[in-house]
Amino acid sequence: MDCYEKTTHLLARLEQQLRAQGLWQHSPPSEEALASTEPFAIDTLTCAEWLQWIFLPRMYHLIEERLMLPTQFNIYPYVEESARLEPELAAVLPLIAELDDWLGGANQ
């Protein structure tokens, strides 16, 4: 399994877990919310929204275009902190840790 296949597998598992926890939305946030320039769009989106509408699409784009994947990657602290307000996110923390490990250098 190459780095793109492994990353795709991890992202698919993240999507499945978001759906299983009832965090997956059927309608996107407003264009204004998605256009936030703050890290993680923290001023306009919840963590689950950021994962679904910004993180996953950007990662899938990198994979589809065979562009370089991130090598310094650490979103676990953000998701962990967000889980205090969105307790359902706790279920995705092990998977986020796996993504952090993989994209933080293990894929090189």
Automatic annotation (TrEMBL):
The lineage, from the top, is: Bacteria, Pseudomonadati, Pseudomonadota, Gammaproteobacteria, Vibrionales
Please name the GO terms of the biological process aspect recorded for this protein, alphabetically.
single-species biofilm formation
- The entry's protein name is YqcC-like domain-containing protein
What Pfam family is a match, any one? DUF446
PANTHER family in the cross-refs: CYTOPLASMIC PROTEIN, CYTOPLASMIC PROTEIN-RELATED
- InterPro entries in the cross-refs: UCP006257, YqcC-like_dom, YqcC-like_sf
Q: Which residue numbers delimit the YqcC-like domain?
A: 7-101
